Amino acid sequence: IIIMVNIILVPLWTAMAIQPNLLQAKGIQVLPPVNFTLTVTALAEVLLHWKPNPDQHQNYTVIYEVEIITPVQEEYNTKHTHSTRTVVLHDGFCAQVRTRLSYNNSQIESEWVTEELPALAGDAGTSVTNLFCIVYTASYNTASLHCSWLAGEHAPTDTVYFLFYRYNNYTEQCPDYLKDKWQRNVGCRFSKTYIDPKQIDTLIIIHVNGSSKHAAIKPLEQLFNQNTIGEEQKENQVGWVLILVTVTMCFITLLIAMACKMCHLWSRLFPPIPTPKNNLKDLARTYTSETETEVGSYIDDLGSYNEDLYCEVLEDSVI
Ligand SMILES: *[C@@H]1O[C@H](CO)[C@@H](O)[C@H](O)[C@H]1NC(C)=O
Ligand SMILES: *[C@@H]1O[C@H](CO)[C@@H](O)[C@H](O)[C@H]1NC(C)=O
Ligand SMILES: *[C@@H]1O[C@H](CO)[C@@H](O)[C@H](O)[C@H]1NC(C)=O
Ligand SMILES: *[C@@H]1O[C@H](CO)[C@@H](O)[C@H](O)[C@H]1NC(C)=O
Ligand SMILES: *[C@@H]1O[C@H](CO)[C@@H](O)[C@H](O)[C@H]1NC(C)=O
């Protein structure tokens, strides 16, 4: 029996003998923050706010550990008593915060305090789906925003969807909707926005809610940045520039060719110098660096066939 008691007691003793940390050893108490609140300050923006525990001794360095639990897990520390997060809120938001004391390389944490925001109200299957947005950059650094979506599977035919975007502190409702066969809004165009095309990392928040006589329409939020949604558009722009440059150069070539045909007399006065027909790139160089006479001779040699070839050469060199 004595041996058995020993077997049970020895591990207990060792556990208790392990020195906790300095602060625990000193019997220092750390108390959780108080009055932790969550406030929605803008679309998809939540302010976390708390107060230091009034009974907490202020002798030690206090920081706060924050953990966002939903919708996206995130942990961070702050010495402030507030912080702001930009996250989608349609499925609710849950976070916890605790006090942490640090002293002489040891630290001790309080209990967590937890708060949550409920999911935005609405019937299942009524939210829009397949929400997709593109930012188009126009001239003078203005940006337009186009979005499209599908009506929720269980959205009644009388559903009216409303789309909002938020960019920094600007929030705007869609002025111009596209409709499906039941006249439900399923697309939106903002021809002018506050979006700065140069700030490609700034988040664009999209919020789509709605109303219906027969169902509560559940809102949906989505975060984009121009980096991810503008990609297609930027490639298009490069494509357009290439096409424009090529067309312009072909047009100039055509004009020169016409001008030279009009001055045909001139080339008769100065007979054409034989040109190697198999090296078109050389010809392109000749055109840019040498005299009009040589271009004229080239055109005379190849006739109308030359213009197409010439454009091909130019396209090769542009791309
Ligand atoms: C916490 O909130 C309660 C009630 O709103 C208030 O009476 C109290 O003073 C607050 N505590 C602190 C530390 O601000
Ligand atoms: C806080 O620190 C001061 C001096 O640094 C000390 O006199 C006081 O007892 C400390 N208070 C507590 C609650 O530890
Ligand atoms: C700080 O910690 C070291 C070792 O952990 C200890 O020797 C020292 O006495 C501590 N200082 C104070 C002021 O508690
Ligand atoms: C947005 O915030 C900026 C400063 O950050 C301020 O100058 C501007 O007036 C605000 N705009 C709106 C619409 O609140
Ligand atoms: C939709 O959201 C906007 C912006 O939050 C709000 O002002 C509006 O009342 C909402 N409409 C409905 C029908 O929920």
Automatic annotation (TrEMBL):
Membrane topology according to the record: Single-pass type I membrane protein
UniProt domain Type I cytokine receptor cytokine-binding: residue ranges: 130-227
GO CC aspect terms: external side of plasma membrane
Domain Interleukin-13 receptor subunit alpha-1 Ig-like: from-to ranges: 32-123
Keywords of the record: Glycoprotein, Membrane, Receptor, Signal, Transmembrane, Transmembrane helix
Molecular function terms, GO-annotated: cytokine receptor activity
Subcellular location: Membrane
Main location: membrane
SUPFAM superfamilies hit by this protein: Fibronectin type III (SSF49265)
Superkingdom of the organism of origin: Eukaryota
Pfam families per UniProt: Il13Ra_Ig, IL6Ra-bind
Transmembrane stretches, start-end: 238-260
PANTHER family, per database record: CYTOKINE RECEPTOR, INTERLEUKIN 5 RECEPTOR SUBUNIT ALPHA
Protein name: Interleukin 5 receptor subunit alpha
